[in-house]
Amino acid sequence: MPAYFSWPLAASALLVLFIVSRVSKLIHNIKLSGGLPGWKIPFPPLGLPGAVLPTTWWNPGIRWTWTWRASAYKDLKSELIALVPFMVGQTTVYTNSIEIARQVVAGGVQSPWIKTEETSKGVIAWGINLISSEKETWRRHRRIMGPAFNATTYGLVWAETARVFRDMAAAEGWDAQNTVSVRAVQDYTFKLALLVISTCGFGWSFAWDEPPMNEDGTMGIQKALNVYTTNILLLVIAPEWAFKLPIAKLQEYYRARETLSEYMAKQIADRKDEIHGEVEGAAKRQDVFSLLVRANEDDGKLKLDDTTLGFLSIYPDIQKELYDEIVSVVGDREPMVEDFGKLEKVLASFCEAMRLYPAGYVMIREAIEDTVLNVPNEGGQPGTRPLPVQKGLRVVVDMVGVQYNPRYFPDPEKYDPTRWYGVSIESEALTAFSVGPRTCLGRKFAATEAVCFLTFLLRDWHVSPSLRPGETGEQWRARVMGTTFGLTLGVESVPVTLTRRRPLPV
Ligand code: HEM
What we know:
Layout: H1 7-32, E1 38-41, H2 64-67, H3 72-76, E2 80-85, E3 92-95, H4 98-105, E4 113-114, H5 135-145, H6 151-171, E5 179-182, H7 185-202, H8 221-230, H9 233-237, H10 248-275, H11 289-292, H12 306-314, H13 316-330, H14 344-356, E6 362-367, E7 371-376, E8 384-389, E9 394-398, H15 399-403, H16 443-460, E10 461-465, H17 473-480, E11 483-485, E12 489-491, E13 496-500
Parallel strand pairs: 1-2, 3-9
Antiparallel strand pairs: 2-3, 4-6, 5-13, 6-9, 7-8, 10-13, 11-12
Helix pairs in contact: 6-7, 6-16, 8-10, 12-14, 13-14, 14-16
The chain binds protoporphyrin IX containing FE.
């Protein structure tokens, strides 16, 4: 070692270098932020380690859009907030403005704003698909997929939801009970949604009470789907090598992914044989999987009615209105897909729950060239001002922010389904499903399933919150309807009690 070398000196030099590099990163990131108001933070909320650290004054974390939904944009008096990291990651601008959202997500194939591979990691695990693809690839996927979402599909969704509902009621013993205590609504709604999409999207039909593990001890496909979709955020934030670590949750996730990949590969091979006419009767399949073969389109939004039921349980007046509508439209006969258009209040209750808990809670885009955003004037004043944007800037459309923006939804915290009376499920007003050419393709699929499920359930059962002694409905709401953040946003466990409207004969 040279005589002039000294460890303290080397360490100090490294420290100086580190500080200089962080300061220059900060300067670069501040420049990118274009002078917008916001926060200087160590890590971006959607990357590691920021996403897994709690939301607190020095780290917004993944939950900030929920926790600070009422204050963040209001306090900064801006519908654009720049989050400028100085340790790792890039500048991200969050917005709760649908006018800005339109410019970044709805620009079509010529748009300077794209989804990057990094941000779509969770959904491209099985190959580039419609949700994650861009430009010509997206156009091709959408052209293939679009027609698969049609009246026949919605008929199938309705029929399958009804079948699974009955299967569930029988398997869970509801048919023989007058009162059912449900520990967590989502134990049922999630599974129901999983079974419906398995059949309607993929052509895999499962029984409600199928065991989670196969006889040979390997993971069953239903369980694998469940594990994969509920923990998909792991895929986005954990590096590949982490799945080899002796951590039970990661290993279970790895097994679920392997099981699904193998199953998917086999399905694709079988389906190709069918499509090429090597298997008798193949073309007659009704499910959309033959089209989905090229593009696994489930993006994890499998939780549908858990929040809707939660709200209906604490607002009995609204539940009564829905019940009256169901009785007047359906009466005692079998509810049919043709009833969908008449069950306006049922649909509205679902749309309002989607607003308050937007499952797709962020839409992420990056500028691939220098461009300009037209920012609406403050306070809803008419007109816009141009905001020059540099290549590389990331914009996150904060869907919680949009849905709680009082400019669009007065008294945003209030569960008020009347906001959606007379609004079609295809309407652009339902911004929780995005806007423009890349709007959610599955919105009517999701709504058909939800309306069918609610119609079957509410016609026979009254839903009430399972309250703790002395607890009010609003206290129950605050306790149980906190959010979970995965690849999608949802609630943890909504305990309710179902009471049969017409008790069974003794
Ligand atoms: C409650 C449920 C759902 C909500 C709130 C929701 C919301 C969204 C949102 C916000 C996007 C835009 C994402 C972006 O551009 O970054 C999207 C895209 C998409 N959704 Fe959904 N979704 C739901 C259910 C479904 C279901 C059940 C399906 C399929 C059966 C589906 C299929 C799609 C597809 C294929 C796209 C990509 C469209 C494109 O890029 O052209 N969604 N969804």
